[in-house]
TrEMBL record:
Alphabetical list of Pfam families matching this protein: DUF3537 (PF12056)
InterPro entries referenced in this protein's UniProt entry, alphabetically: DUF3537 (IPR021924)
TM region(s), chain numbering: 51-71, 86-107, 142-163, 175-204, 249-270, 282-301
Protein name: Extracellular ligand-gated ion channel
Keywords: Membrane, Transmembrane, Transmembrane helix
Length: 434
């Protein structure tokens, strides 16, 4: 299964996900977008749709349910008992089901190219297209980086559990053949579920990064001659894209947040019972499942907070642009010699303030929010128009929202602190991390 998935992910020559229109943009983007068409996410025909749902029910529901009831092993020795298997299987299967249903809905409504905004990428600049190409490359690598370590750790546990269980573990006919088949099915089920979960999170990250590239490109309008109307139209287009992304993913993000929080609380309550048996062999999968769920949630929240921060940084950039232009216009009316900073700014070179003269970078690494003055090209725009534009930015803050709540860094820090506290508590109970 893993080899088949990798082959499809890295394919460059297959047709794009069933969509009538084709982008006239970068061909490499097309090839890598077609690589995201998994066997179990193909809706190009009726029988492939049936195959996708059949694999989903088999690996996400059938195998975990049978495994839980047949291999609960309550009579085994303490190291082979699985008292927390129900929580692990239920949490992971629910997360995978939520991800699969979301992907199915996206595929039927939009298609992959439209969903990733590839159909409109031809209207963007070459810099945006190249940056998006690099992120598609990186998304495939990140998917492997998140999936393979979790799959390897769970595979090691399952191989140890079946190989060292002996006759305690139920089997049919041939003990060795039965254990090998069941172990492979369980590993495929685990790989399938975590791959689906991380795939949706990384697709959300990918769509957010495209808007980040557009915002960075949009910020350059303040450094060249532009009229207010063109700036306003471009910002309205970006805000609309952010609203579209928020609308598509709001159910998934909110459901994931609720699911992960409930799973963490239940795991915490169960592991802190007086008679609970906590060690790496009995609760190792619980710790691994907890890490997987929290990682997927944080990928989504961090991507949402980053794009929200970038979008709101445009307001400070516009205010700085307005201030520089206003100061420059008053200096032109004054007979006094303009300062070196204003003269340099009028010449078109950004000026760095004294406290930003060193090479040390901030933790935000945000090019839109720095202490450099904006080059003055705004003398062709009246004060009233600049003030109206800044007022518009102040009262129309863009970003990722979930039913009206803006996902900014404050929300990210709060949720991260709660989830990390629960995760560290579980890890402390399972493998002794203090």
């Amino acid at each position: 299964m893993e080899a088949e998935v990798a082959e499809v992910l890295l394919s460059k020559n297959k047709s794009v996900f069933s969509e009538n229109s084709h982008s006239e943009g970068n061909c490499e983007l097309k090839s890598y977008s077609s690589g995201l068409k998994w066997v179990f996410l193909d809706y190009s025909s009726l029988w492939r749709t049936g195959l996708s749902w059949s694999i989903f029910f088999l690996l996400n529901i059938g195998v975990p349910v049978v495994s839980h009831f047949v291999y609960s092993c309550s009579d085994c020795d303490p190291s082979h008992q699985r008292p927390y298997d129900a929580i692990v299987q239920l949490s992971l299967s629910l997360f995978a089901a939520l991800s699969f249903i979301s992907l199915s809905s996206f595929a039927r409504k939009y298609g992959l190219r439209r969903f990733l905004f590839l159909d409109k990428l031809g209207d963007e600049s070459e810099k945006v297209r190249q940056g998006y190409t690099q992120q598609i490359h990186r998304s495939v690598k990140l998917l492997s980086a998140f999936v393979l370590p979790c799959f390897f750790a769970d595979s090691v546990y399952k191989i140890w559990w079946f190989s060292s269980g002996g006759t305690q573990i139920p089997y049919l006919y041939n003990m060795y053949l039965s254990k090998v088949i069941v172990c492979i099915l369980l590993m495929c089920s685990w790989l399938y579920r975590i791959s689906i979960c991380f795939l949706v999170c990384l697709l959300f990250r990918l769509t957010c990064y495209l808007q980040i590239l557009r915002l960075e490109e949009f910020a350059q309008v303040f450094e060249r001659e532009s009229d207010v109307a063109s700036i306003l139209i471009e910002h309205l287009r970006i805000r609309r894209n952010l609203r579209v992304i928020s609308h598509r993913f709001r159910v998934f993000i909110l459901s994931t947040l609720i699911l992960v929080t409930i799973s963490q609380f239940v795991s915490l309550l169960v592991t802190t019972e007086p008679r609970s048996k906590i060690n790496i062999s009995t609760a190792g999968e619980l710790a691994l499942c907890s890490i997987t769920l929290v990682t997927g949630l944080l990928i989504c929240l961090r991507s949402a907070a980053k794009i929200t921060h970038k979008a709101q940084s445009v307001t400070s950039l516009a205010a700085k642009w307005h201030a520089c232009a206003t100061i420059d216009s008053f200096d032109e009316l004054d007979d006094e010699t303009p300062t070196a900073q204003i003269a340099s700014a009028r010449a078109g070179y950004p000026v760095t303030s004294n406290w930003d003269s060193d090479t040390e970078e901030g933790d935000g690494d945000d090019a839109l929010d720095n202490t450099n003055l904006v080059p003055i090209y705004a003398h062709t725009i009246t004060y009233q128009k600049r003030q109206a534009l800044v007022t518009y930015f102040e009262h129309n803050r863009a970003g990722i929202t979930v039913y009206g709540f803006m996902l900014d860094r404050t929300w990210l820090h709060t949720i991260f602190a709660i989830q990390l506290s629960l995760t560290l508590w579980i890890l402390n109970k399972t493998i002794g991390i203090s």
